[in-house]
Amino acid sequence: MRNVLLLSHLAGVIVWIGGMFFVQFCLRPVAVTQLPPAQRLPLMAAVLGRFFRVVAIAVLVIVASGLLRLLDVGFAAAPRAWHAMMSSGLIMAVVFAYLYGICYPALTAAVAAADWQRAGQALERIRKGVVFNLVLGAATIVVAALGL
Ligand code: HEM
């Protein structure tokens, strides 16, 4: 059971962190240089819509599998790194909920209205949240893997 939980946990982490890395460092820089706002913003909204749907599932799997392992071992007996991971993981989940629940609907509404200025502002808010989660996620992986 431990291995199944760890595998689910890590699969979710790979999808979430890897996807954010791809969007930030591969998709966005090319879209910004090659596409005008009227093409780039609908593209980004559609890509993020698919990505966020998958991330919502990944977040549930990560939090559930992590908490089950913690309960299994007992909070008091769990290593410090696990407690640190739970805190940063929950912060990342709240940031994701804000991006998906508030910023993303603002982006799709602006895109539907062809209001590129508002769409650009909403996308910029999403980008900042994604960078925040990417940095916190990378730090979490370092802490988890090195057991700091
Ligand atoms: C509520 C959120 C989270 C909780 C409660 C949690 C809890 C745990 C626990 C208990 C383990 C040990 C599993 C085992 O050895 O059987 C673990 C492993 C791990 N977690 Fe998390 N986690 C959370 C979120 C995250 C996040 C957001 C990341 C990455 C961004 C992450 C990355 C890892 C990694 C890389 C391991 C493997 C460490 C190793 O085997 O040495 N976790 N997590």
Strand-helix topology:
Blueprint: H1 2-34, H2 37-73, H3 80-112, H4 116-146
Bound molecules: protoporphyrin IX containing FE.
Keywords: Membrane, Transmembrane, Transmembrane helix
Domain Copper resistance protein D: 46-146
Protein name: CopD family protein
Sum up the structure in keywords:
91% helix; binds protoporphyrin IX containing FE; 148 residues; mainly alpha; membrane; transmembrane helix; CopD family protein
Overview of this protein structure:
It is a single chain. The protein is elongated. It has one domain. The longest helix is centred in the middle third of the chain and has 37 residues. With 148 residues, the chain is mostly helical. The chain is built from four helices and no strands. It binds protoporphyrin IX containing FE (HEM). Protoporphyrin IX containing FE binds next to α1, α2, α3 and α4.
